[in-house]
Design a protein that fits this description.
4-stranded mixed sheet, alpha+beta, 8% strand, Glutathione S-transferase Yfyf (Class Pi), Chain A, domain 2, 55% helix, globular, 9 helices, Glutaredoxin
Length: 229
């Protein structure tokens, strides 16, 4: 059986960059499950699996198709209960929901501002047109105006991660002594920036940066298979 993860790329298929897809790459590796990754550009996503989902990641596991990163993680933990857990029980699911909310509400917009022009430049022309149009609809301004706020975001970025920094004072991972899906959620956001715009603007001795480096080394250095921009 070939397990397939459909993910997102620009013109270079070897540089998948979606934060949500990186969560699932790490989750599959955490479970020790073999898979083939098939990256698609934005405008080709509607053709995947006969239009199964408007977004990636999509996981095909035998006859089963699953969309949405959190739903895929829940599926993996339920379907492969004999393999290392992604949540460690109901409490871990609740922790992961909180981290997902924190990441999307606090971290994703700053990364968007810092990375948006870099992402545009990674795309082929049809996807560049789609990206400009869809981001104008979503953000209410052209991507150049969004990117104009990037320097302010760089200066303020470290402070936004203070709750994570405080947590890492007590434990090496958000999941405790070992990583859980909660770690992969935040990792995905920082890896999104690393692959598109370069490493997150954090000092090397910052505990969050040290945690990120540990995550990059997980699963045989899976996160490092794509070099930083």
């Amino acid at each position: 059986m070939t397990r397939v993860l459909y993910s997102l790329c620009g013109r270079d298929e070897s540089r998948p960059f979606s934060p949500h897809c990186w969560k699932i790459s790490m989750a599959l590796a955490h479970k020790g499950l073999d898979y083939v990754e098939r990256p698609y550009p934005f405008t080709a996503i509607p053709t995947i699996e006969e239009g199964f989902s408007k977004t990636v990641p999509i996981l095909r596991d035998g006859d089963r198709l699953v969309r949405d990163s959190f739903e895929i993680a829940l599926y993996l933990d339920e379907a492969y209960q004999n393999l290392p857990t992604l949540f460690g029980g109901e409490g871990g699911k609740s922790l992961s929901r909180f981290v997902e909310s924190f990441s999307q509400m606090i971290i994703h917009m700053p990364v968007t501002r810092m990375a948006i022009l870099h992402i545009h430049d990674m795309l082929d022309e049809p996807d560049q047109a789609y990206f400009r149009r869809s981001r104008l609809e979503r953000l209410g301004k052209p991507i150049e105006e969004v990117a104009a706020e990037s320097e302010a975001e760089r200066l303020a970025f470290a402070s936004k991660l203070e709750p994570v920094r405080r947590t890492l004072h007590f434990q090496p991972y958000l999941g405790g002594d070992t990583p859980l899906f909660a770690d992969y959620i935040l990792f995905g956001a920082l890896q999104w920036m690393r692959v598109t715009a370069g490493p997150p603007p954090l000092a090397q001795d910052d505990s969050v940066m040290q945690w990120f480096e540990r995550c990059l080394d997980l699963h045989g250095g899976l996160g490092r298979r794509v070099t930083a921009a």
